[in-house]
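Entry 12.
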Amino acid sequence: MIQGHGDDLYRYGNRVEINFSTNIFNHFDHSPLFDFLARKLHLITSYPEPEPTTLEQAIARQNGVSPDSIMVTNGATEAIYLMAQCFADRVSFIVQPTFAEYADACRMHGNTPPTDITTPTAADTFGSNTALWLCNPNNPTGNVVPHNELLDTIARNPHTLFIIDQSYARYTLKPTLTPSEAAEADNVLLLNSMTKDYGIPGLRLGYVTASEKLIAMLRRYRMPWAVNSLAISAGLFLINHRSLYTINTEALCQECVRVSTLIQKLGIATCPSDSNMLLCRLPEHTAAELKEFLVDHYGILIRDASNFHTLSPQHFRIAVQTTAENDTLIKALTEWTKQ
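Predicted 3D structure (tokens):
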């Protein structure tokens, strides 16, 4: 899905002033990180660690698990493809609608074509040697599976491998799986994204937490030098300066409810969300038409969600930003609905 992702800011040059198309909060102050990396540019003249062990150890300390339960990857997407490759013999089930890379990765590595399901509790009907892919909080709906319900489903299905993408865990108030819960389970691969935690999508940093056995299996498929020196250094800096990257999750979730209410008043349907992202559906016209209108007239970029499996040409997704920016979006949508 190389051409189908959101945050296609690169297509619009300097025409975009407010970016709602990414689920990342866009208002971190990165200047300390920039200054730090400016002093680390000499690292590009040498090879990085063949495996990013230093960063894995730091993440393990932060999360209270063994370093052998952590594998750092070149973004969460690399982890998705490695997991699909490592467990290609399993029959995959994907909770839809969701991030398309899970299905794409399964197809790339010759998995049995994945089966769409609507809830993780469907695992109770699976046979052995299966894998369930779950985004939690889910992209694009923002929904979170109740923590106890998810743990119970995992425990009842020991022969199913649960691949759980928690890239957006910092954007919800709902409890999600802890690193310890993932590391102690025999059938869970937990995916986290430093991209989303710290707002650094260009650096490509993700990591998997799982039992030492599962991580050992996954590491067999990792290419050497997959994570570059600057990314490793940045990851270490971010872990040591996490206080600089506070997300007011409560405020974002409250703002999501407010924006959802205002959008519904315009006759645009919205999906209930447990996070900062909001899936919307136009009553007529298409999300592609709305997207171009917003860029042309307001410098606003949204996510055309029509290419999410099971969604329609009328679906679009936003992630709330500041109150002022959200109000600008509401103003723009109000003008659109009056056309």
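Annotation: The mean pLDDT is 95. The chain has twelve helices and 13 strands.
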